[in-house]
Amino acid sequence: MNTEKYIVLQSREAVSATRGANLTRSGAGVTTFAQPGSDIRLEEADLTKRESHDLRRDPRTRAVAQPMPLKLIAPIRRMAADATTPSTPETWGIKAVRAPESRFDGSGITVALLDSGIDPNHPAFAGIKLVQQNFTDEDPNDIEGHGTHCAGTIFGGDVNGTRIGIARNLDRALIGKVLGKSAGTSATLAKAIQWALQEGAHVISMSLGIDFPGYVDSLVKQKRMNINPATSMALEEYRANINLFTELARLVQAYSAIGQGAIIVAASGNESRRPAYEIAVAPPAAGEGIIAVGAVGESDQGCTVAKFSNSQVDIAAPGMNILSAEAGTSNLIMMDGTSMATPHVAGIAALWAQRQLEMHGRVENASLMAQLVASGTYTPLVPGSAEDDVGTGMVQAPLN
């Protein structure tokens, strides 16, 4: 019997004779979400084509998708910082989002970073409570450098007299390693989102995306398909995975009714090459209910959209010449990318969450998302910036 791996998100009480056999036979581990009115479970199962069709037809099934490969939204550029360069009070990105002017510092808030892990020994993270979970089969710490840089922007402490982090007094930082030198899948990421939610995350930050070209290539090689049918099949699963992340975002929102509120922010992607062409936001950021982040950089006229930044974003943040922690050293490194913009938004989200917590005693998903997106401003941007490119504008910290 030919079977393939599928990610299944469904109401736990959803039972049919076929499905019950499928999920029992698969032997996959079941993870249950407590949700008002029903329990939701997420699992990876081995299903035949007929079984997958049966699941899709059941109205209680939220999503069925085949796992697609993930890739880090790789920085466009990496440039080591000169250790002899005089320190500055804060990076330009920290200043642009007005973090130094805010009285909030992330106290009482938990942020989850789903990325390539972290270098816990970097001085930027001294004294921060890190909770690490490894979803890969490689070293649990960051051997790629991407996650460490992102973490530095969200919550890193000052390094050599320079402020690199926004929410420097988080209650906890959840670090889920979902990929690194080896590729993860959308199933890995779905499990990591569930882990972050159950661990009490108020903000989930993801600077990664689905590797569509890599998936097409795997179909061509493994199934010996021609490029055209392989692309069509990949598009089908691409849509299914967008639906999966949309449903996961809805689950996160529903969880807010009985637990703490949480929001997901994700990088829009670096595939555009402006002005030649623009690419729309890629999943998981393309999922409804996930805040898609675009990147901007400095110019003499004001901040301008980065040439690589994908379009149709919800909000923008500094993503060029971003100085943050370098894995494997005690130094800083400069990178460009929407991966670097996303942790700015995640850090600012933590400040807004702290404000909610202080005012109302809890964090609520919908209002936190609304406040964060509404904080965007066009004031620091070059005149004529397009909404598709920057969303509501440059994200801003709450001041009081």
From TrEMBL:
Transmembrane domains' residue ranges: none
InterPro entries assigned: Peptidase_S8/S53_dom, Peptidase_S8/S53_dom_sf, Peptidase_S8/S53_subtilisin, Peptidase_S8_Asp-AS, Peptidase_S8_Ser-AS, Peptidase_S8_subtilisin-rel
Keyword hit for Secreted: no
Matching SUPFAM superfamilies: Subtilisin-like (SSF52743)
Domain of life: Bacteria
Keywords: Hydrolase, Protease, Serine protease
Domain Peptidase S8/S53: 106-363
Keyword presence, Nucleotide-binding: no
Residues at the active site: 115, 146, 339
Family of the protein in this entry: Belongs to the peptidase S8 family.
Official protein name in the record: S8 family serine peptidase
